[in-house]
Structure formats: structure tokens, C-alpha cells
Write a structure and sequence with these properties.
This protein has 89 residues and is an alpha+beta fold. It folds into 2 domains: 1-55, 3-Layer(aba) Sandwich (Glutaredoxin), CATH 3.40.30; 56-89. Helices cover 31% and strands 35% of the residues. It has helices at 10-19, 33-37, 76-88; strands spanning 3-6, 25-28, 41-46, 49-54, 57-61, 67-72. The protein has a two-stranded parallel ribbon. A two-stranded antiparallel ribbon has the order 3-4. The radius of gyration is 14 Å and the shape is globular. The relative contact order is 0.13.
């Protein structure tokens, strides 16, 4: 099962999921509680400005809920390949 987490509002996530025909759940985390729990809410920089936001990451959990793979600051292009490799061994 794949679950995406974003600080965006649920309505925005539903629209994004529909527009991009995503086959997985998107969880709205407006208070970034889940992101903070996983250590992926932090300072980001763009065009010389600092702001707080989601650090693009993925986590693969086993059936007992243990993290078996964590990729922090992973590119979208690499994330899927690395997650599949973690699951398939």
C-alpha cells in the first residue's frame, strides 16, 4: 500500500490525485504532525529564501510497522525505483 503525505488541504489533494490519475491514497497533514514524527518537516531554501516545508522522502514499512527503508531528500525519479528495490530485495 502506498500513502502520500502532504501539508496541503484534502480538497487540493483530491484534485491533484484525480488530475494525475494517482492510484494511491494522499493524506492531508496540515499541522505537519506526521511529517515531524518522521523527521521530514524542516527548513528548505529556494531562490535564497528559507521556509519550512516537507523534505521529499519515502519510507518503506514492513507488516509490523517497522521502517525497513528510509530515503530522505530523495528525487521523485529515484524514489519509486528505490522503494521497489527495498520491497523486492
Amino acid at each position: 500500500m502506498v500513502i502520500g503525505v502532504s501539508p496541503d488541504a484534502q480538497k487540493a489533494l483530491q484534485d491533484f490525485r484525480r488530475k494525475n490519475d494517482l492510484p494511491f491514497v494522499l493524506l492531508s497533514d496540515p499541522d505537519h504532525q506526521v511529517a515531524e514524527m518522521y523527521g521530514v518537516w524542516g527548513e528548505k531554501k529556494m531562490y535564497g529564501k528559507s521556509y519550512m516545508g516537507i523534505i521529499r522522502s519515502h519510507f518503506v514499512l514492513d507488516e509490523q510497522g517497522r521502517i525497513v527503508d528510509a530515503q530522505i531528500k530523495v528525487s521523485p525519479e529515484d524514489s519509486v525505483r528505490l522503494a521497489v528495490a527495498a520491497v523486492t530485495g
